[in-house]
Structures are given as C-alpha cells and as structure tokens.
Design brief:
Layout (H helix, E strand, L loop, with lengths): L14 H10 L6 E4 L1 H7 L8 E4 L3 H10 L3 E6 L4 E6 L2 E7 L1 E6 L4 E5 L3 H6 L8 E3 L5 E3 L3 H6 L9 H7 L2 H13 L6 H9 L9 H12 L5 H9 L2 H5 L10 H12 L5 H6 L6 H10 L4 H12 L9 H10 L2 H18 L4 H19 L9 H5 L7 H16 L6 H13 L2
Parallel strand pairs: 2-5
Antiparallel strand pairs: 1-2, 1-8, 3-4, 4-5, 6-7, 8-9
Helix pairs in contact: 7-9, 7-10, 12-17, 14-15, 15-17, 17-18, 20-21
Length: about 425
C-alpha cells in the first residue's frame, strides 16, 4: 500500500525546499525528507524541523546549495551534516551513512548510497521514514505499521541499537511519552533495563536535555512509571528513588482540568523530594541553568502550606520567601488533594483551600518596606551595625503586623528605638 504525505504537509510545497531537493537530486543523486517531519505529518502533529538525507557527499551538498544561492554551514561535516538556509529556513542535510565504530556515546561513520543501510542505523522504526519531493513515503523498516499502532520499536536488535548510543535508553521513554500507546515494546523495555548502567557514560548535558524533552510531553506519567519499573529512572535521576512518582498522574490531570500550562520543572518537582541539599546536588550534576537551579532551590526551601492557612499568614511567608517556590508547593498540594477528593470529602475541602491560597499567591505583590537607613540617620542614628539591627527589627514588626503600619508610625517606632539606645 502506497502512503503519501502530499496534501497534509503544507511545508512540502515550499518553493525553496523544492528547489533544494531538486538541486540535491540532479545528475543521478537522490534526496529525501527524513525522520521527524515525515513521522509527525503521518501522526497529525506539528512539524518543527525538516531534515534531508541525500546521496551527495558533504562538499557536493555545499556546492549545490551555494549554486542555488542558499547559505551552507558545515555544522557537522565530519558526520556528513550540512545546515542549509533556504528562504530563511534552516534544513539539516546529511549524507547517507553507516556506522563503522561506536562507543556508546559517538560513532565513526562511512558515507554511502544505500538507503536501507542508512535507515537501519537509526534508532526507532517511526524515525526511519523518508519522503520524496512528491510526498511519497518510503518505509524500509516497518515504520508505517508502527505509527498506525502507535508502537515504539527499535530497529533490529534493541540491545545493539542501545550499545551504539546509550542515550537511546532515554529516547525510548521520551518517544514513548510523545507517540506511544499501551505498553512499551517488551524487547525494548528489557534492553533498556539491562543496559541502564550505560547512562553513566553520557554527559550531563545530554541526559538533562533528553529528560527535559520527556518531561515536556503532553502526559509523561506513563513513560515515567515504566522508567521506574525498569530502574532507568533511578539510574538517570537517583533523587527520585524511594520518593515515588505517583504525584505525576494527579499533576498532569490538574493541568488538563484547570488549564495549567505544562511545566517541566514543576513535573520534575513532583517526582523528587523537597530537600534543598539534594536539589543542589541534582542541579550541579545535571548542569542546570541558574534559573532552573534557583527554581528548584526556592521550591525546596518553601515550607509546606496547610489548606486552612489564612491569606494574611501566607503573605508573611511569601514576603520572607519566594513566590514561585510557594506557588509550586501549592500547585502540587492542590493536584494531590484533587486525586484524594474522589473518595474523601475532607480532601475536597483541602483542595478548595489550596486553590484559594494559590490564587492569592499568584496575585500577590511584595509590599515595599517604607523605611530606609537614611530615614534613621535623619533621626540622629549613627550609620553602622546598630542602625541595621534597628531597621531589621522594625521590618520584622511591620511584617508581623500584616504590613499595616505606615511610614509615620514606623518613624515613631524608630525614634523610640533610638531613644531607648
């Protein structure tokens, strides 16, 4: 049965892409759209990047692209990859190749002209589909049947594919989260479990990048549960061990029901303990950005909030802490309470309390303390530690009073404090 993406791939009609494909196919050579763009089009999902495979050698790819007036950048020329910018859009073009030698992290390749060999060196059947300039799909590994069944399957021997690049263990669960249904492929799951120690060979940047893509899936909960069962989650994220990831189900459901935008860092917080020391180690090990590390740190430091807490009491804690950290705590508490509320009326009341406090937190704006050091020196205070101590005590009194004392009242208290010595 012939399959085509023509008619459902608007991007295929781009005149610059068609010119590029024609140039690469001239003179007996061939060029086809490869991988994700074909897969996503067949699955009715958005297409972000368009990759091309060609029989042209890298230098010939550059020559032909530049002859068409396009910009060619040798982004990975040692592996046969050239990025061509045509009509303002980047296209990653890679010469057909086969792996000569692999060490679980990188591969040495040889260039060739065999499309089946090129397909068989890829990871999953759904990622090894090609499409010609006319949209006709070429399937050399059974990828179309797997797409129709929403089944994620390694090409050939799963263990062999993983030994070529251990990152494929995480990719297996990431692609299952995005494209799979039912249970993961049994052979793939067993191979991931057997070879999970190979993850230790990978760089922190590659592991975190893959975990972020997994956590960004519409619903990563099933994939994470299978990762835990295969002990892959513990190998990649030891902080999750003995903590449990059951909260991820309630969180993803709350996202859908309450209209929350999927938040990969909040999802991460749902599967690791709120321990500031351990989150610091996690951030350092996986080389988090400063923003990512700070987000986890503030969440871990934010103390748990009870559902009966008043807005006034919460405001004091927000002033002393971080609003995002408390918002994360409240979202996770609300999601968990909603799960329990199905069979527990008390949990339903808790969910209402958490919802109220979350709404307050999101609207809350930190008030500005009305006094500065200059106000105290104007009253005769001598700059130094004593002045700082008085100012700090006054701010604490102001917070405990619900931020109510105005500037005049605070100046009176400052005068009294200075008079008392």
């Amino acid at each position: 049965m012939s399959v085509s993406i023509a008619g459902r791939a608007n991007w295929l009609g781009d005149k610059h892409l068609q010119r590029l494909l024609a140039a690469l196919a001239d003179g007996g050579e061939e060029a086809r759209i490869a991988g994700g763009a074909v897969r996503n089009t067949l699955m009715g999902q958005p297409v972000a990047d368009i990759d091309i495979a060609t029989t042209c050698l890298p230098q010939e790819t550059i020559r032909r692209a530049e002859a068409e007036g396009f910009k060619a950048v040798p982004t990975g020329i040692e592996h046969g990859t050239i990025t061509v910018v045509a009509g303002g859009k980047p296209y990653e073009i890679t010469t057909l190749r086969a792996d000569v030698e692999t060490d679980g992290r990188r591969a040495k390749v040889s260039f060739g002209r065999d499309w089946k060999l090129d397909a068989e060196r890829r990871d999953f059947t759904i990622n090894a589909l090609y499409a010609g300039a006319d949209g006709a799909v070429i399937d050399l590994v059974g990828g179309i049947a797997d797409i129709e069944a929403r089944r994620l399957r390694f090409i050939g021997d799963a263990e062999a594919r993983i030994r070529e690049d251990y990152l494929r263990i995480l990719r297996f669960f990431r692609f299952f989260a995005w494209y799979g249904d039912g249970r993961p492929d049994a052979e793939g799951l067993k191979a991931c479990a057997r070879l999970k120690q190979g993850l230790a060979q990978l760089s922190a940047e590659r592991i975190w990048s893959e975990l972020k893509k997994l956590l960004s899936a519409p619903d990563p909960s099933r994939a994470l549960l299978w990762m835990r069962q295969a002990s892959v989650l513990t190998a990649a994220l030891p902080e999750s061990e003995k903590w449990g990831i059951d909260a991820i189900h309630g969180l993803t459901k709350a996202e859908k029901d309450l209209g929350w935008a999927p938040d990969l860092l909040l999802r991460l917080e749902a599967i690791v303990p709120p321990d500031a020391a351990r989150m610091k180690v996690l951030a350092e090990r996986l080389k988090f950005s400063t923003v990512e590390a700070d987000r986890l740190r503030h969440w871990a430091l934010a103390t748990a909030v009870e559902p009966k807490t008043t807005e006034g009491e919460l405001a004091k804690r927000l002033y002393r802490g971080d609003r995002q950290g408390f918002a994360d705590r409240l979202r996770l508490s609300l999601a968990a309470a909603r799960v329990r509320a199905v069979e527990d009326n008390d949990a339903l009341l808790e969910a209402g309390g958490f919802s109220r406090l979350l709404a307050f937190t999101l609207k809350w704006e930190k008030p500005l303390f009305p006094l500065k050091g200059a106000d105290l020196t104007a009253l005769g205070a001598v700059p130094g530690p004593k002045l700082g101590e008085i100012l700090k005590n006054l701010e604490a009194e102001w917070v405990e009073a619900g931020f109510a004392p105005d500037r005049g009242a605070l100046l009176e208290r400052a005068a009294e404090a200075l008079k008392a010595g």
